[in-house]
Amino acid sequence: MEVRLRTPLSEEDIKKLKVGDIVYLDGTIYTGRDEAHMRALEYLEEKKEIPVDFNGAALFHCGPIVQKENGNWGLVAAGPTTSSRMNSLEPEFIEKLGVRIIIGKGGMSSDTVDAMKEFGCVYLAMTGGAAILAASGVKKVEGVYWLDLGMPEALWIFEGENFGPLTVGIDSHGNSLYEEVQKEVEKSLPRIKEALLG
Question: Is 164 helix (H, G, I), strand (E, B) or coil?
Answer without folding.
Answer: strand
